[in-house]
Amino acid sequence: MAHEYDLVVLGGGTAGYVAAIKASQLGLKTAIVEKSNLGGTCLHKGCIPTKSMLKSAEVVNTMKNAEKYGIESFNPSISMEKILNRKNEVVERMHSGIKQLMKKNKIDVFDGYGRILGPSIFSPMAGTVAVENPEDDEAESEILVNHNVLIATGSYPRPLPFLPFDGEIVLSSDDMMTLNEIPEKLAIIGGGVIGLEFASLLADLGSGVTVIEAGNQVLPAEDKDVANHLKKSLEEKGIEFKVDISLSDESVQKSGSSITFDIGGESTTFDKVLVSIGRTPNVEDIGLSNTKIQMEKGFIVTDEYYQTKDKNIYAVGDVIGNLQLAHVATKEALIAVEHITDNNPLPLDYRTVPKCIYTSPETASVGYTEKELKEEGREYKVHKVPLAAIGKAVIAGGEKGFGKLIVDPATKDILGVSIIGPGATELINEAAFAKFLDASSLELGMSVHAHPSIGEVLMELGLDADGIAIHV
C-alpha cells in the first residue's frame, strides 16, 4: 500500500522523533519508520537507562560513605533486579510520553525496517521508502512516497574483531542494560566516556573493575587535567587502569564462564568483559546505494544543513560522524527540518556543545581543550579555581574537584571550560550558554551567582581571568 508524506524520518530515536514533531509543527505531513522502539538507543539502551543505574550507584556510594556527613556508614544490600526494575520503569514512563507526543502531533509511525528506493514509478527521484514487516518477510511492503527523507538511524556498539559479543561473557553496552548480577571481577576495554561511566557504576556497586585503554590517556578527547583527575578519583574507588595496552587474539583466552587477559606479561581472569571501543553507524542495507549519497570513513556526507548529495535526503546524528551525543543529534535534526521548510536556520557551532560524563565525580566541558589550541597554534591563557574555594562544593563533598577556564589573552573570549566535581553536568549548561552568546570572561564573572552554590566556581573563573577573583 502506498502513502504520501511531506517528510519521512528513518529512525525513531531522539533525533528522529524530535524532527518529526518539529516538522508537524511547521505543517508537514510526517511519518516515522522505526524497527524497534520509539526513543531509540538513548531512551532504551543509552542515556536514560544508564543514568538511572548511575543514580542507584550514587545512592549506594552515599550510604557507604555516610560518615563524611555525620551519619554512620553501612554497606547496603544491593539487588540488580530492583535496580533494573527501576530503570525499566523510568524508560517505560518516557516511552509512553513519546508515543503520546506522536498522537498529539498527528505523526504516523510505521513499525518495520525502512529502505530508501531509487527513482521508480512512485517518484522520479530517489527517496521513496519501502517499509518491511520485521516479523513477516513475505508481507507486502508499505510504500511511503515523500518530498523529503531524514536519515536518523543512529549507531550500534562496535565489537573487537577477535572478541565478538556473546551476551554472556563478552558484553556490549546494550548487554549491560540487562545485567542481572554484579560481576565480582569486570574488565572494561576502552577508557572513553561509556567505559568510564560503567566503571564508576559497577565499582560503586561492588565490582572489582579493571579498565584497559589502548592510548596513554583515558578520555583522549577531553582536557588532560580533567582526564588525569578523573582517573585518580576512580582509582580511589578501587578501579585499576591499564593504559598503553594493545590487546590481540593471542592475549585473550575465553572459557565457558570466564575470560583471561595477558596484560604486560601478567594473566588476569575476569567474570565478564565490557567492550566499549566506540560505535558504528547504522547505514547498512537502508538503500544508500540507490541514491547519490556520498560516504566518508563509513559516515554519510552532508553540508552544514545536513543535506546530502540528493537534495531531498538529509541525515543527522551518529550516521554523519560528528559528536555522538543525543543533544547534538537533536539539534542537527531541528536544523535539518528548518532547512527543509526554508526557515533559514543557523548552522550548529560544535564548539558551543556541552559534553558530559556522568561518572562519580561528574565531568563536563565545552569548547576547546589546551591540546586542540596548541595544535591550531593559537594563543591562550588558563585559569583554574579549586572547588575547595566554593562552600557549596565542600558541603557536597566535592572539594577535590576544580573548574578550568581557557580564554583568549587578547580579547578575553571564552575558548573552553571544563569542570570536574558535583553538579558538573548541570553547570556546564551555563558555560555553554555563555559561549553561545560569545560572552567574555568578565561578563561571566560579573553576572551575579547565588550563594552558596557550586555555580559560583564559574563566576570566580570569570573574575580570575581578569585578575580580580575574590576567593582564590
Question: Any chance you could write out the topology, listing elements then pairs?
Answer:
Blueprint: E1 2-10, H1 14-25, E2 30-34, H2 40-44, H3 47-64, H4 80-104, E3 108-111, E4 113-116, E5 129-132, E6 142-151, E7 155-157, E8 170-171, E9 185-189, H5 193-204, E10 208-213, H6 224-236, E11 240-243, E12 252-254, E13 259-263, E14 266-270, E15 272-275, E16 279-281, E17 295-296, E18 299-300, E19 313-315, H7 326-340, E20 355-357, E21 363-367, H8 370-376, E22 381-386, H9 391-395, E23 402-407, E24 414-420, H10 424-436, H11 441-446, H12 456-465
Parallel strand pairs: 1-2, 1-6, 2-3, 6-19, 8-15, 9-10, 9-15, 10-11
Antiparallel strand pairs: 4-5, 5-6, 7-16, 12-13, 13-14, 17-18, 20-21, 21-24, 22-23, 23-24
Helix pairs in contact: 1-7, 3-4, 3-5
Notes on the structure:
The strands form six sheets. Strands 1, 2, 3, 4, 5, 6 and 19 form a seven-stranded mixed sheet that branches. Strands 8-15-9-10-11 form a five-stranded parallel sheet, with helices on one face. The chain folds into three domains: 2-46 and 83-156 and 280-348, 3-Layer(bba) Sandwich (FAD/NAD(P)-binding domain); 159-277, FAD/NAD(P)-binding domain, CATH 3.50.50.60; 352-465, Enolase-like, domain 1, CATH 3.30.390.30. The protein has 472 residues and is of the alpha/beta class. β1 (2-10), α1 and β2 (30-34) form a beta-alpha-beta unit. It has helices at residues 14-25, 40-44, 47-64, 80-104, 193-204, 224-236, 326-340, 370-376, 391-395, 424-436, 441-446, 456-465, and strands at 2-10, 30-34, 108-111, 113-116, 129-132, 142-151, 155-157, 170-171, 185-189, 208-213, 240-243, 252-254, 259-263, 266-270, 272-275, 279-281, 295-296, 299-300, 313-315, 355-357, 363-367, 381-386, 402-407, 414-420. It has twelve helices and 24 strands. 30% of the residues lie in helices and 23% in strands.
